[in-house]
Amino acid sequence: MYYHKLGKIPPKRHIQFRQEDDSLYKEELVSSKGFSGIYSNLYHIYAPTKIKAVGKVSPFGSKIMTDYGLRQTHLNTSKIGTTGDDFLSGRKVLLKNADVSIALCVPKSKAMDYYYKNAEGDEVIYIHDGSGELHSQFGKIEVKKGDYVVIPRTVIYKFKWNDEPLKLLVIESASPIETPRRYRNELGQLEEHSPFCERDIRPPSEIITEDKEGDFLLKIKKHDQLHEYHYSHSPFDLVGWDGFLWPYAFSIHDFEPITGRIHQPPPAHQTFQAGGFVICSFVPRLFDYHPLSIPAPYNHSNIDSDEVLYYAEGEFMSRKGIDRGSFTLHPGGLPHGPHPGTVEKSIGAKETHEYAVMVDTFKPLFLTEDAMEFVDKNYPMSWTE
Ligand SMILES: [Fe+2]
């Protein structure tokens, strides 16, 4: 990320910065990697440490299947109904390992009458359906269908969703979500060969300053539990902030695809990196233009990664029987490839209108108990004509 600021801040860090009644604003340094990573300085009306009560703790995790076995997997989540009551209980985690978890969230209620922070992971929320506003300590961001909303850990936030169907792909990362290293120069700027640049990153654009007292509930996720904290002031009590650490939105529609004469490998679609996995965006693009090109992918043995695709929009030319909103998992150790007939059918095709989000992990993924009801039992045999 880059340096950004909103609202009022003092001319130097860690100096007196006074409110109208002459009391001091309360400064908070939010820093990553101890004091060595990116950070922001926040200026509060009330002390961020001042709480009213420590509330209840409830489990907030998912159980993995350890005996699922090694098999090509299609999770037929295309017709998934509501997944829970709200934005948190509605997160149905389907795949996970120590580095990442992948959930769908289709909440019954779009209202959030509490604030939330994830204290153990960065979140990437891909908005498959829906629109609204992300409200956080850092301000407001308008969000819409096709956005990746990237929320660093410990950012306190809530969403205000518009009244329309809502479906979210929620990717939680144990390590920071970053833009791909190979697209950044030595000072962090996205380079000319990057498929997107800083203009495509949408930072918070309007500070929210709620100077009010009462009972404000904050739910904090840590240790696979939700911890309730009660504050006597709004957590959105900032008058300003500056730094490199802030939430942002990036639309899959702003990802400029890299194409070539012959088939481009998945790294050409990489959008984010994190410890132990990457996120890639498949977007509408011209197909390969060598006179003998085969637009469909080749068979692939991924020997040290598990590959997850979430089919967002359009016809996926290499897959049969996969609908909008389904997942496939092609685990390391088994070759996967285009379905029978799709290679021949792809020859001569000029372009694709597909959208998909790919999550490739370097450690094996586990399906969760919640994923079991969506397993398409015929999928391992789907390459046999
Ligand atoms: Fe692959």
Summarize it:
The chain has one helix spanning about 340-345, and strands spanning about 5, 25-30, 40-45, 55-60, 75, 90-95, 100-105, 115-120, 120-130, 130-135, 140-145, 145-150, 155-160, 165-175, 215-220, 225-235, 240-245, 250, 270-275, 275-280, 285, 300, 305-315, 325-330, 335, 350, 355-360, 365. It is mostly beta strands.
Please state the CA-atom Rg, rounded to the nearest Å.
22 Å
Secondary-structure element series: EEEEEEEEEEEEEEEEEEEEEEEEEHEEE
Spatially, the strands of the biggest sheet line up as 18-12-9-14-7-6-28
What is the averaged pLDDT score?
96
List the ligand species.
fe (ii) ion
What structural category arises from helix and sheet content? mainly beta
List the total number of helices: 1
Shape descriptor reads globular
Q: Main β-sheet, in a few words?
A: 7 strands, antiparallel
Model description:
With 385 residues, the protein is mainly β. 1% of the residues lie in helices and 38% in strands. The protein is built from one helix and 28 strands. It has a seven-stranded antiparallel beta sheet, with no helix packed on it. A six-stranded antiparallel beta sheet has the order 5-24-23-27-20-19, with no helix packed on it. The protein starts with a strand and ends in an 18-residue tail after the last strand. Residues 300, 302, 307, 330, 336 line the site of fe (ii) ion.
